[in-house]
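Ticket #4471: structure export looks truncated?
Reporter: QA, pipeline team
Priority: medium

Steps to reproduce: submit the single chain below to the structure queue and open the exported record.
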Amino acid sequence: MDWITFHRETVETLLVDGRALFEAHAKEDATHPDIPLSINEAQYARMEELDLVRIYTVRHNGQLAGYGVVSVYHSLLFQTSKQGICEALYLDPSVRKGRTALQFLQYIQDGLRDLGVQVMRLHARPDSAFDQLLRRDHRVTHLEYDIRLDQGD
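Actual output as written to the record:
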C-alpha cells in the first residue's frame, strides 16, 4: 500500500536525504542551466539556528519524495508582519498525482500559520501545473523577472 506523509524536518535531514531530489529539481526547473547546483549548507544550518527557515517534506512509503523550503522572518519594510518566502518547492513526478501537491501546500501553510506567519509568498513558472494550482485560491500580486548580468547581449 502507498503511504504519503508530510513532515516538518531539519535542514540536516533534508541535506542528507535530498541529494537526488535536488539534482532532479535543478535539472527540471533550471532557469539558468549553466549555473551549477551548489547548496550553501552552512548558510542553511545558520538560518535554522536563527529560526529563519522551515523545512517541510513529503515522504512516500518513508522515502523523501518532495520538499518545501520556506524562509520565515519579519519583513524589512513591514516589521510587524512575519512572512514566509517559499525558496524551493519540489515534488518528485511519482507523487504529483491526485491531491498530493494541494495537500502538501496546505500542510505548509498550516504550519506557517501556527508560527504566526501573516503572508506567504510563492513563485511558479507561468502556465505550469503549479501556477494553475496556485490560481485556485492564491492571488497574483507580482510578476517575477530576472536578467543575467554576467553575460553580454
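Status: closed, not a bug. The export was complete when the record was re-opened. Leaving a note from the reviewer for reference: The CA atoms of residues 69 and 88 lie 5 Å apart.
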